[in-house]
């Protein structure tokens, strides 16, 4: 559940506020309700926790009622703890805003047709209600793969992302990545205040979109692969064949994770490109370690056959 300010809600969806500008709304589900039955006086099975959407059918029904009946039905409808009401098609529903104002129910209006608006608000609520986490890292889009670079501050995440941008890849978020779980997919984006900005130590904040063009940034990308950047440790054994599948748990979802040792002279941008291409090839069943094992097996079999002769 989220608590949303009516003004913010209206601004996000391009709605006109008819009443309840300062009200706070409790939104718990992305499903909607068209209250035709409730306005007709039937309140059983009323999904009062949903955003209520009034379209042409509901407005026409109310219009043909007598004024007293119409006000009575709307008053009964608004007595339920609904989050808000949205009127579509720019329609007028006489008396609704005044009654809603008395009980603190926000009422909005949009010029959109009812069905397109419902698609839009469901997508919006799905996103807002999705489980989320703010992660320290840099998210880039390399060859269509969302790569999350992680590691201690100053290890070179932003510089690596900047080099990738120069190579034609795109920045999603620098330093802080807002990750949301949308169904089975993790989607990352920058917090609004940090969108398109990147911190380069010694230079400061730069606006990547302004400096490199609109094609250098993207608002969101799925988090497909995590690259953990660590200082090179001579006493540590690093993966050499790539036949072990390590993962990192993010919001209950396992994400492929590779540990990349950082040392002077290593081209991290190139390694990110290689990791992204390798990730895509693994999705197609192409795995270098398996190729090596198959070649070695074929070689051993050939040697045995040769000895038998």
Total number of beta strands: 19
**What best-fitting shape do the alpha-carbon axes yield?**
elongated
Mean pLDDT: 90
Number of helices: 10
Largest sheet: 6 strands, mixed
Helix coverage percent = 25-40%
Structural class: alpha/beta
Walkthrough of the structure:
The protein has 309 residues and is an alpha/beta fold. It is built from 10 helices and 19 strands. The protein has a 6-stranded mixed sheet with strand order 11-9-10-17-19-18. A 5-stranded mixed sheet has the order 2-7-6-5-4. A hairpin with a 2-residue loop joins β12 and β13. The radius of gyration is 28 Å and the shape is elongated. The relative contact order is 0.10.
Keyphrases for this structure?
single chain; 309 residues; alpha/beta; 6-stranded mixed sheet; 19 strands; 35% helix
Summarize the entry for a quick read.
It is built from ten helices and 19 strands. By secondary structure, it is α/β, with parallel strands linked by helices. Helix 4 (67-78) runs parallel beside helix 5 (96-103) and helix 7 (157-166) crosses helix 9.
Secondary structure layout:
Elements: E1 2-5, H1 6-13, E2 16-19, E3 24-27, E4 32-33, H2 36-39, E5 51-54, H3 56-63, H4 67-78, E6 85-87, H5 96-103, E7 107-109, H6 114-129, E8 132-136, E9 138-142, E10 145-150, H7 157-166, E11 170-173, E12 176-182, E13 185-189, E14 197-200, E15 204-207, H8 208-212, E16 220-222, E17 225-231, E18 247-250, E19 253-262, H9 268-283, H10 288-308
Parallel strand pairs: 4-5, 5-6, 6-7, 10-17, 17-19
Antiparallel strand pairs: 1-3, 2-7, 8-12, 9-10, 9-11, 12-13, 13-16, 14-15, 18-19
Helix pairs in contact: 4-5, 7-9
């Amino acid at each position: 559940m989220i608590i949303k300010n009516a003004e913010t809600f209206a601004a996000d969806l391009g709605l006109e506020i008819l009443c309840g500008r300062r009200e706070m709304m409790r939104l718990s589900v992305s499903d909607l309700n068209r209250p035709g039955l409730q306005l007709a006086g039937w309140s059983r099975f009323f999904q009062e926790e949903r955003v209520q959407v009034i379209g042409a059918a509901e407005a026409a029904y109310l219009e043909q009622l007598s004024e007293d009946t119409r006000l009575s039905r709307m008053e009964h409808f608004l007595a339920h703890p609904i989050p808000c009401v949205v009127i579509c098609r720019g329609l007028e529903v006489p008396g609704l805003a005044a009654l809603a104002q008395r009980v603190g129910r926000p009422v909005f209006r949009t010029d959109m047709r009812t069905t397109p608006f419902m698609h839009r608000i469901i997508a919006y609520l799905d996103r807002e209600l999705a489980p989320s986490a703010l992660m320290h890292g840099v998210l880039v889009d390399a060859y269509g793969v969302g790569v999350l670079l992680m590691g201690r501050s100053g290890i070179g995440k932003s510089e690596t992302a900047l080099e990738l941008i120069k190579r034609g890849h795109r920045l999603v978020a620098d330093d802080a990545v807002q990750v949301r779980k949308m169904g089975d997919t993790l989607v990352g984006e920058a917090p609004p205040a940090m969108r398109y900005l990147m911190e380069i130590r010694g230079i400061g904040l730069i606006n990547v979109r302004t400096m490199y063009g609109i094609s250098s940034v993207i608002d969101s990308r799925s988090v497909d692969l995590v690259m953990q950047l660590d200082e090179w440790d001579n006493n540590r054994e690093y993966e050499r064949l790539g036949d072990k599948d390590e993962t990192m748990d993010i919001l209950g979802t396992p994400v492929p994770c590779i540990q990349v040792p950082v040392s002077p002279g290593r081209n991290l941008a190139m390694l990110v490109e290689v990791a992204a291409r390798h990730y895509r090839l693994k999705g197609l069943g192409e795995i270098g370690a398996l190729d090596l094992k198959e070649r070695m097996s074929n070689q051993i079999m050939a040697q045995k056959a040769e000895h038998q002769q």
